[in-house]
Amino acid sequence: MPTTKKPAADSRSAAGKHQRRLRDLLNRYDAAFSAGASLDSLLRQLEQLRDYALRHAIGEAQILSALAAQPFLPQDSAAGRQARQMLTDMTHNLGRQLLQPAQPSSAKPLSPAQAMLEQLEDGVLLLEPVGQQVLYANAALMEWLGLADAPAYPVALSALAPGSGLTEALRPLLALPKDKPSQIAATPLRRPGGEVGHADIRARPLRADDHDCLLLTFHDATDRLTSEQLLTRHLDILAQLAGLSAELASQPAEPLWARMSSLLERVGRFLGADHCLLALLDVDGKQVRIAREWRREARGAGPPAETPVIPRSKLYWLEQQLGQQRTLQLNDSADAPEAADVLRQLLGDNGQSALLATLRPRQCWRGVLAVSAPAPHSWLWIEQHMLQSVADMLSNFLDRSQHHSDARARRWPRRASAIGNGGAATPRRIGPTSCINCGGWTLRGLPRR
């Protein structure tokens, strides 16, 4: 018995499939909007929804009526035509709604597009690019620019926020073809307080009331850029530490100690300091001596300055602080009078801000590595960790130097015995030396400054 086709059933099955797909697209859009997705992302989803509906809606009134919340309307129903028109003009209506003059909510409620855009965290700007007239800006952008109230639109782009740098920021974007989406990343914009933020700006062509406009979205990229800069700084610090570690571990102690000032210069310049010094505890443990230092401004001509010696008692506060946390960060010593007095003892009068790290091999305080600047300076936490890492390397270097010095001292009696009664061996003198002792630890053979 021949079978007969059931076009009505097939049509209902296809319509049901498309209804489910459209409902899925609508649910995704609602979820994205609730999650605070960017305007650019929402527009892409709306266009995808519109294109799908138009591609399958011809001859299928069930799909259109599903969007109108009336699933069984006839094909030529008014609700079906309205739903189809809504999808067709979705993005174009957005521009027309934005062009409506802003009025107090008591006089006239916001259009759906304006209500949506006012809730976004991203800034939105509708711009007529030929005359550079601003047709709309949402609340997020107004807050970024420091404007309390929306101006009367249209307004010239240069007059919207003259001190923000908005016109300069958009200039390279406006030079690009305006018939395609474009974007620029991490563009600087000045905030009301004077600090500089950065925004990712995207431009999208939009037709509104027979005018070719640009819909600009501003996404705050300040935190991301700060993280990128911090990561770059971290990588640079790791490279510096790797170089210093290899140099301190591979070269002999005496020539390396002779070049210690140049190593301190590398550390000081890298950290943006004007002064870097290495202070070590003296042999009797009662005085701290500036063993090596570097200054950005060279001292004037004249005889070499005497090695600064500071009574340990005057640095008791510093020793106590470093004993608790190993590093000390002072962005402005004027905020801490006790710290200012200690810094003056150690760094002189030009150390208003400082970063200090302790040398504590074998858990015994033996000195301090310090960088300073003559003005307030904000040191990064990774720079603080870098200085402590350098201090640890110098501690290991001093331990290695002590080991070599002790080994040399043990060799002299054996050499004297080998010579016999014909004469006594005399140790080779390596210039003036400073001895450092702490808990049985003595370092010899380090030339003085």
UniProtKB/TrEMBL annotation:
Xref: Pfam families: GAF, PAS_4
SMART domains: GAF
Ranges where the record places region Disordered: 405-426
Domain GAF: 255-408
Protein name listed in UniProt: GAF domain-containing protein
Organism: Chromobacterium haemolyticum
Source taxonomy: Bacteria, Pseudomonadati, Pseudomonadota, Betaproteobacteria, Neisseriales
